[in-house]
Design a protein that fits this description.
By secondary structure, the protein is mainly alpha-helical. The protein is 81% helix and 0% strand. The chain has helices spanning 2-27, 30-33, 35-38, 50-66, 73-78, 80-105, 112-137, 141-155, 157-170, 175-185, 188-206, 209-215.
Length: 216
């Protein structure tokens, strides 16, 4: 049982890692073709909100690209200095992108419901990442990992949002009707799944070794 669960977990990790890196790389397409041509949804922020826009779309992909590498046990064990530096980059990228995203949430043209969705995401994203940083500095690595899982689930919203947008367009619904839903559905399920995973892991950690071996 434990071997099967580990195999499923590793497969899920690598799928998420590949999607994260690919979406992060694709997000920088605005550097080549410009924001109006590649990110029409947020292009209105170029007028009066340019700094927040570039802070968000420029640094969120950095956090997304770095995130999968922070969960590689081999890297943490063999190259702890690289893990620490990538962690610093991850936290800095989220600090800039999260604050910028919060500003953008107040100016979205998708409506109040969408604004609240993206705004709450930005606040929780900053909070979970900040908690992960605090516990890392305290060298409480067990709690650091818990909060990093929560932070990563919210970082992965960049992927789930991009997977949901084509579904919305394919459904034939008006963008103005499904985008506010995506503002919530792109991250709330991620956060719930992270909590389910953490709950399951706590049960596994608290199980007596003998019982774990029998059930395995």
């Amino acid at each position: 049982m434990l071997v099967a669960n580990r195999a499923i977990g590793q497969t899920g990790y690598w799928i998420a890692a590949v999607f994260s890196v690919l979406v992060a790389l694709a997000s920088f397409r605005f550097l080549v073709w410009g924001v109006p041509a590649t990110m029409e949804i947020v292009a209105h922020n170029l007028d009066g909100n340019r700094l927040a826009l570039y802070g968000h779309i420029g640094f969120a992909p950095v956090a997304l690209a770095v995130m999968p590498f922070q969960f590689l046990k081999g890297l943490r064990a063999r190259k702890p200095h690289i893990h620490r530096w990538l962690g610093r980059i991850y936290v800095a990228a989220i600090a800039i992108s999260g604050i910028s995203g919060l500003i953008l949430a107040f100016t979205t043209i998708a409506g109040t419901f969408a604004g609240f969705g993206f705004g709450i995401l930005a606040v929780i994203w900053l909070g979970t990442t900040g908690a992960a940083l605090v516990f890392a500095l305290k060298r409480d690595f067990a709690r650091h990992r818990v909060w990093m899982i929560r932070s990563a689930a919210l970082t992965f919203a960049a992927v789930t949002l991009r997977l949901q947008l084509p579904i919305g367009f394919a459904s034939g619904a008006e963008f103005s009707s499904f985008y506010p839903i995506v503002a919530w559905s792109s991250w709330v399920p991620n956060a719930i799944l992270a909590e389910i995973y953490l709950f399951w892991m706590r049960q596994l950690w608290q199980r007596p070794p003998a019982e774990a071996q029998v059930r395995a």
